[in-house]
Write a structure and sequence with these properties.
The protein is α/β, with parallel strands linked by helices and 199 residues long. The protein has 5 helices and 6 strands.
């Protein structure tokens, strides 16, 4: 099996499960979703949901192609075909957790890079979901959140993607504590369902 590594630009041991209690809700706005085949996007979302659920986070996805996202204050992820040429060729995405004033934290994910870098024995949807969860992790934890193991590994290779396919790819215990603390402080991550009106 060839060794393929993904470096997710941006910038232990992990818990077996999330902290007890009611999960925190996190709304993620998705921009330019037509770049990704619908089935692949839906499966990728489910993979990311499982990873984030282990940190006590329940994700609500807003597809800005069919929902009114402009009035919502929350993170957003944009899908692109190619990333800027100044990034390393094995980059799947990058996050900007501290953008200029007036902008919400955001991440960019290249679907082409996900497809080209997915291990031969793993569905590309798993790679996509792991990449989404990794970038969301940066939005919650900051640019310097890389670890030697787990979802925030600097490079998501065959080992990490295999773990994601088995539902075993997680945040570290310290990262879970940081994420829960961030969610408790930030009310903007939660969106009233009444505000999610279709165009």
């Amino acid at each position: 099996m060839k060794r393929i590594l993904i470096r997710v630009a941006a910038a232990g041991l992990w818990l077996a499960s999330a902290a007890a209690g009611v999960p925190d809700e996190l709304t993620i706005r998705l921009v330019d979703t037509p770049v990704v085949p619908r089935n692949a996007l839906q499966e990728g979302e489910r993979v990311a949901e499982r990873i984030l659920a282990q940190a006590g986070i329940r994700v609500q996805w807003m597809d800005c192609a069919v929902e009114r996202c402009a009035s919502v204050s929350s993170f957003w992820i944009q899908f692109v075909d190619r990333l800027p040429s100044w990034l390393p060729p094995d980059t799947a995405g990058y996050a900007v957790p501290a953008p200029p004033q007036g902008m919400a934290p955001y991440a960019i994910v290249s679907y082409r890079s996900v497809v080209e870098s997915a291990p031969e024995t793993t569905a590309l949807e798993v790679m996509l979901g792991a990449s989404l969860a990794h970038e969301i992790g940066h939005l919650l934890l900051g640019r310097s959140a890389h670890t030697l193991n787990g979802i925030m590994s600097a490079r998501l290779g065959n080992r990490e993607i295999g773990m994601a396919a088995r539902g075993a790819l997680r945040f570290t215990g310290e990262q879970v504590r940081q994420i829960r603390g961030t969610m408790r402080r930030e009310s903007a991550f939660r969106v009233d369902p009444a505000s999610r009106s279709e165009q």
